[in-house]
Amino acid sequence: MAETIHVDIVSAEGEIFSGPARMVFAPASEGEVGIAPRHAPLLTLLKAGEVRVQTPDGEEHFFFVGGGALEIQPRKVTVLADTALRARDLDEAAALAAKQRAEEALREKVSKIEQAEALAELARAAAQLKVIERLRKLRG
User: What CATH topology corresponds to 91-139?
Assistant: First the structure.
C-alpha cells in the first residue's frame, strides 16, 4: 500500500475534510506547493485558490480556500482557511457578482483601505471562478 499523509482542512465554520492522501496541492503565498508523505516541515500563508487532495484510492477532492495558513509536517497537513468550501458548492453567479462589485469599487475614487478590500475581494472572486472553470473542464 502506498504511503499516505493525513490532511485536515478547517475553517471558522468547521472541518471540511479529514483523511489520508497520497498527494496534496495548495496555493501557498509564493506559488502552488505539492505535498507528499514525509514532506519537510513548513509553515506558510495561503492565498485564495484551490486545494486538491488525491486520496489513496486515486480519487481527487477539490476545495476552495479564501486564504489562511498551511502547516506541513512529515505525516500531517493542516489547512487553516479563512473560508473553505468544497469546489462543487461554489456559486458561480455569486462569484461573478462579487467580481463585478469589486471592479466597480476600484473604478470609483475610494480610500486606500476600500481599494485594498476591493482588490482582495477581486482576487477571491477570480480564484473561485478559476476553480469552477477547472472543475467544469474535469467533468466535461
Answer: 1.20.5
